Amino acid sequence: MKRKIKLACLFLSVLMLLTACSAGEKTALDPKNPVSITLWHYYVGDNKIALETAVDTFNKSVGSEKGVVVNAVAKGSVTELEKAVTEAAKGVVNAEAMPDLFSCYPDKALEIDELGKLCDLNDYFSEAEQALYVEEFLNDGQFDGERLLILPIVKSTELLYVNETAWNEFAAANGQDATKLSTWEGVYAAAQAYYKWTDAQTPESSGDGKSLMGVDSVANYVIIGNKQLGVEVIDGQNQQVVLNRAVMKKIFDTYYGGMSLGYFNAVGKFRSDDIKAGDLTAYVGSSSGAAYFPTWIEKDNTQLPIDFLALSYPVFEGGSPYAIQQGAGMSVANSTPEKQEGAAVFLKWFTSEAQNIEFAMTTGYLPVQSGAYENAEFKASLEDLRAGETAEKNVAAVYDIALNQIMERDTYASLPFKGSYEVRSTLEKSLTTMGQSGRQNATALKEQGLSEAEILAALDLNARFEEWLTAIRSQLNESGIPYIEN
C-alpha cells in the first residue's frame, strides 16, 4: 500500500486535547499532588539536550497545570536502554524499577508486552486523536490489529549520502552520472569504476584503490533489499523468517563482492566518520544523521571543505522503490492510573504539531503528525535551515529528499514477532562478518598478483553464499525461530 502523508482535516486539529484520558473519562490527576513520571531514553548529544529542554518546558507549563512532573533519564545506547528495560520488566535482582515511560522499538515492545508490562494507549488516545498521526507511523506501534503499545515520537528513513566534491571529480574524469546511483547495481558499478580510477592514480602501487560506498545498517540493507524484490524476510504475519535463495543471493553478491574487492568499506564506528577520514565517498544511512555528515575532510593534515549531496535510497533493478521507516516511539508501562494518565498527557503534548516540529527539526527527524508538514512553522524552519550554515543546509537538503521519499515512494517497517529482534541481529552480524572475511581473503589474493576475475573465482561467491545461509540457519535453529526456504 502506498504510504503517503495524509493531511488531517482542519476540524480534527481542535480535537487534540491536552488531557490524559478519553472523552468522558474522569481524570485521575491532581495538580495539588503532582504525579512523578520517569522517562528512560537513549538520546545523546544535541538530541539529549533537545529532549531535556522539551521536558523542562512541559513541566513548567502543561505539566504544572495538570499535575505531572516528568524526569528524563538517559540510559546510554539503544542496546543499554533495552537491557535495562528488560531487566526491570523481568524483575532481575538488583535491576532498577520499571520506568513509567520509555523509548521503545516494536521488537522490544512485543517482548515487554508478553510480560504484561505495557499499557494499551487506546485507553488514552481517542480515534480522533489517533487520526492526527501519519497513518503508517502509527501503525508501526499497533499490535494484534488493535492494541496501541507504542506512540510515534519522531521518525526517519534512509537515504544515500554523497561527498559531492569527491564524486564530481570522479564523475568528470569518468563520464559518470549521479543518476546511476539510483540502483544498487548502478552503485556497485560506480564503486567498481571508482576503485579502479583511484588505484590507477598510484601506478607504483597496484591494488590500493579507494572505496566509494558504505552501509550504516546492514540489517536494513538486507530487509529492504528483500522487500524491494518482493519478499518479507521478517514475516511478522506468519511469524517466521523467509529465506528466498534468489533474492538473498543478489543481496549477498552485491555486499560481499563489494566489501571483498574494496568497492565498499566500513572502517569507523559510523560511515559518516569514514567520509570525514576520506575512507568513503558515499554511504546509505538514516535521514536523522544529516547533521553528522562532515562539512570537511582531512587530507594530508589539511581540512578540505566538501559539498553534500543527498539522494533517494537505491533500489535493486526490477524491484519496487521501498525504503526503511524507522525510529523508536515511546511506550507506557502498566502501573497506576495516575502514572499512566500522566505519561499520556506528556505524550500528547510532546507529539502535538508545534512541539513536535520543534523537537524534530532540532534533531533532524520527521514529525509524526500529518498536519505538521503543512504547518507554517515547519516550512519556516526549513527555510531557516536552507539559509543557515553549511551543516544546516545539509539537513534542509535531506528533509527535501526524505519527505519526497515518504510521500511519493513506499516506506516499510517489518512487522515484529517473537524473536524478530534476534533475526535482525543475525542478519546484521552474519553478513558483516562475511564481508570482513571476504575483504581479508581478497587482500591476500591481491598481494599474490591475482586479477579481479581470479580473486572472485578464488573467493567462490556461490560457496560463500551457502556459508552465509548456513550461519543464518544455525542461529535461527539455536534461537528456536521458525523459517522457510524457497
Automatic annotation (TrEMBL):
<dbReference type="InterPro" id="IPR006059">
    <property type="entry name" value="SBP"/>
</dbReference>
<dbReference type="Pfam" id="PF13416">
    <property type="entry name" value="SBP_bac_8"/>
</dbReference>
<keyword id="KW-0813">Transport</keyword>
<dbReference type="InterPro" id="IPR050490">
    <property type="entry name" value="Bact_solute-bd_prot1"/>
</dbReference>
<feature type="signal peptide">
    <location>
        <begin position="1"/>
        <end position="22"/>
    </location>
</feature>
<protein>
    <submittedName>
        <fullName>Extracellular solute-binding protein</fullName>
    </submittedName>
</protein>
<keyword id="KW-0732">Signal</keyword>
<comment type="similarity">
    <text>Belongs to the bacterial solute-binding protein 1 family.</text>
</comment>
